[in-house]
Amino acid sequence: MVVGLGNPGPRYAGNRHNVGAMVVERMAADSGVALRAHKARAAAAEIRLGTLPGELPGPKVVLAVPSTYMNESGGPVSALMKFFKIPAERLVVIHDELDIDFGAVRLKFGGGEGGHNGLRSISKSIGTKDYLRVRLGIGRPPGRMDVSDFVLKDFSATERRELDFLIPSGAEAVELLVHRGLDDAQNLVHAR
């Protein structure tokens, strides 16, 4: 299951904090499916991710975006995992990351939440920090700007132009992760 984190509604749609949701929405659109409301308080869709050798359809993946606020993401993620029978080690969470330069993509398994309320909520709700993460760099706030103000602001005009590269890079990282596993995907993604 691939979950993109963000906050619901048009007020937050262009925020830095919503870049994870933007990637999942792009993956759904590229697959020709619409994310639909699910009883787990999320929008979700099942897709086949990419193609395998011999032009066979790729593995089944559930795409999801919680419809709750970021700090309540865990409830919907936990409910979706139960509904679709997804173990924690097959959960991929896509999220914004302050500690990575803007535009960079990094992959990891487990570890701390780095103050990210969406990750903290998920870890608490599913009872483990051991799940895959696709970390999309948004950089640090300028000067003395408060972190929460920074993540809840829309991307700058310059950053918006770069989103045309960051969002597809995030989607490609997910596909590599699902198809090739963490080690191979890290070697390919982190080398860029």
TrEMBL record:
Keyword Metal-binding among record annotations: no
Family: Belongs to the PTH family.
Catalytic activity: an N-acyl-L-alpha-aminoacyl-tRNA + H2O = an N-acyl-L-amino acid + a tRNA + H(+)
GO molecular function, one term: peptidyl-tRNA hydrolase activity
Compartment(s): Cytoplasm
Active site per the UniProt annotation: 17 (proton acceptor)
Protein name: Peptidyl-tRNA hydrolase
InterPro entries in the cross-refs: Pept_tRNA_hydro (IPR001328), Pept_tRNA_hydro_CS (IPR018171), Pept_tRNA_hydro_sf (IPR036416)
